[in-house]
Write a structure and sequence with these properties.
The complex is a heterodimer of chains A (about 250) and B (about 300).
Chain A lengths: L1 H16 L1 H27 L6 H6 L2 H15 L4 H6 L2 H6 L4 H34 L7 H27 L4 H18 L2 H4 L5 H8 L3 H9 L5 H28 L1
Helix pairs in contact in A: 1-7, 2-4, 2-7, 4-8, 4-9, 7-8, 7-13, 8-9, 8-12, 8-13
Chain B lengths: L1 E10 L2 E11 L4 E5 L6 H8 L7 E6 L2 E2 L4 H6 L1 E4 L11 H11 L7 H11 L15 H13 L5 E5 L7 H14 L4 E5 L3 H7 L2 E6 L2 E6 L1 H7 L5 E7 L6 H6 L3 E9 L2 E8 L6 H11 L2 E8 L3 H10 L4
Helix pairs in contact in B: 3-4, 4-5
The chains are: A mainly alpha (about 250), B alpha/beta (about 300).
């Protein structure tokens, strides 16, 4: 456990040693800020049926920034170590492969969670300034943030897999960006192709991140997406582990 | 300490190493020589459990490098070629991290990190970013890292590559000192270094072991590569013809430098013909300005072994 903790703390620290962390943080805060500002001013002008919190997590701005950050967070995880050769001292130290894989995943997850702390204050500030809550209930907040965590885990695990497949960070970023975007649009297919059976549409709906976020941000905690994202994360991490081990046979 | 049996590694159908067999005993400093691409790094990586062999077996401190790789890795300190390091960390920070990773007990980390910094001369750069270090210091950080957990065995891949002559001397002294407590396997291109530091030498060529012996007996085997050189004014004499008549001389090559002639003599192994040459020169009244015996070096051994079938 100590070795895992050592690896994890190095992963998290290395984010803040590189400019990538700050660029991602600033980029993300900028878009989240603009998103929040737009939603609030939009609501100032007309009557709407949803809350600020729901609008914030379901806007185009949000999804645009959301899909982009994962390749940026995960591209360097393994690819950089392969490229610089630091994988050699790392793997000749007495550490297990799974410790390395999990520390990289949880390191990325820790950074992702840090990324989400500042936007949480938007709602606090909103309540302070506007004198009314940004959401209907506490459950709506926890639903949104739970969905963020689940989606984050799934997309980060895709990024881990992409990074372990190559020693080129750009290629890792492109692979994970394509995979995440395709998965994301898989959920949108039901709005585009209308002449499919309703069963197919329902099936595709299960993959729809937008739909899941919609229900969770209203405070409706559906267990199906929870199982889906958790199990997909485990599958992706298992594949990452296998791919990481296979380097021994490919070298 | 190291035991290697029929070790073979193939990449895409080509053998990088083929049926290696050798042993390194406790307390030995074993030199690993070979031209580029001979399979030195491959062998060392297998011993450090970085990759598995295609076939064969290797044990480190009694642990199989594949089946018990965690224990094997805990018993060895490995320094990779070109010393890859995290350039975003500071020297002390990096060593602390490595110590924890290698399972140095919590309360001993500070002491061990202090010790290796002292030993490798890293005190003056301890707070510097690794990115800002010179090649020589990076090499020392790599060595310090290998020593952190007090391993019984050190595997050093080209520890002196890219260093200047002073740094090479420092690293060499360091390795010699380490050899008192550790078993060391090191690879290098610099042959005088091996002669000075190693108790035994393996010469590997095209993935096979061509020789494995002490430096002295390797030299003994190829004494003929040494020879005698004579620089003399022989006047009207032919010189070469007379020198060839001396028993023990195999061959004479002549170079001229004005009146002076430079004779390079290849002699039979073990023969010392210098006295005969002196007698010949005084009898013929040649003026001599140089008469030396050239000792064979490991370089001759190396060239003879690795050149033979590559021509």
């Amino acid at each position: 456990m100590r070795k895992f903790y050592t690896l994890l703390s190095r992963e998290v620290r290395s984010y803040f040693h590189s400019p990538i962390a700050y660029v991602v943080l600033i980029f993300f805060l900028l878009i989240a800020g603009v998103d929040f500002y737009f939603q609030v001013s939009f609501m100032n002008q007309r009557q709407v049926q949803y809350t600020v919190q729901e609008a914030f997590f379901n806007s185009v701005f949000f999804w645009f920034a959301f899909v982009l950050i994962f390749p940026l967070i995960t591209m360097r995880l393994f690819a950089e170590e392969f490229k610089l050769g630091t994988i050699e001292p790392l793997m000749t130290a007495p550490v297990r492969d799974w410790q390395v894989v999990l520390s990289k995943f949880f390191g990325a997850l820790a950074f992702y969670i840090i990324l989400w702390i500042p936007p949480a204050f938007y709602f606090v500030i909103f309540q302070y300034v506007a004198g009314q809550p940004a959401a209907h209930s506490a459950g709506a907040y926890s639903g949104s943030y739970l969905m963020l965590l689940l989606l984050g885990m799934f997309y980060l695990s895709i990024g881990c897999l992409a990074s372990v497949l190559t020693k080129n960070q750009i290629i890792a970023a492109i692979i994970s960006f394509c995979a995440i975007t395709l998965l994301f649009f898989l959920g949108l297919v039901q709005f585009i192709i209308l002449d499919v059976s309703s069963a197919t549409r329902d099936l595709l709906g299960y993959f729809s991140a937008i739909e899941h976020m919609g229900t969770f941000s209203r405070g409706v905690i559906d267990t199906r997406p929870i199982v889906f994202y958790l199990s997909m994360t485990v599958v992706m991490l298992a594949l990452t582990y296998q791919a990481f081990q296979s380097r021994k046979w490919r070298l | 300490m190291i035991k290697v049996e029929n070790l073979t590694k193939r990449y895409a159908g080509q053998s990088a190493i083929q049926d290696l067999n050798f042993e390194v005993g406790k307390g030995e400093i074993m030199g690993f020589l070979g031209p580029n691409g001979a399979g030195k790094t491959t062998t060392m990586r297998i011993l450090a459990s970085f990759m598995p062999p295609t076939s064969g077996r290797a044990t480190v401190a009694g642990f199989d490098v594949f089946a018990q790789s965690l224990q094997a890795r805990a018993h060895l300190g490995y320094m990779a070629e070109n010393v890859p390091l995290y350039s975003d960390m500071r020297v002390t920070e990096y060593l602390d991290y490595r110590a924890a990773l290698k399972g140095v007990p919590h309360r001993r980390v500070a002491e061990r990190v202090g010790d290796v910094k002292e030993l490798c001369g890293l005190k003056e750069v301890e707070n510097k970013l690794i990115a800002a270090l010179s090649k020589g210091y990076r090499q020392r950080v790599g060595l310090a890292d290998a020593l952190l957990h007090e391993p019984d065995l050190l595997i050093l891949d080209e520890p002196t590559i890219g260093l200047d002559p002073n740094q090479i001397r420092q690293v060499r002294d360091l390795i010699k000192n380490l050899g008192k407590q550790h078993t060391i396997l090191l690879s290098t291109h610099i042959l005088p270094e091996v002669e000075m530091t190693c108790s035994r030498v393996i010469i590997i060529h095209k993935g096979r072991i061509e020789a494995c012996d002490t430096p002295e007996s390797l030299l003994g085997k190829i004494r003929q590569a040494g020879g005698v050189s004579l620089e003399a004014k022989v006047g009207a004499d032919n010189g070469a013809e007379e020198l060839k008549k001396i028993s023990g001389v195999r061959d004479v090559i002549v170079d001229s430098d004005g009146d002076w002639k430079l004779f390079s003599l290849r002699v039979e192994s073990g023969a010392d013909v210098r006295e005969e040459i002196f007698r010949l020169a005084t009898a013929r009244q040649w003026s001599v300005r140089e008469l030396t015996q050239r000792r064979a070096t490991l370089e001759d051994v190396f060239v003879e072994i690795t050149h033979a079938d590559s021509v």
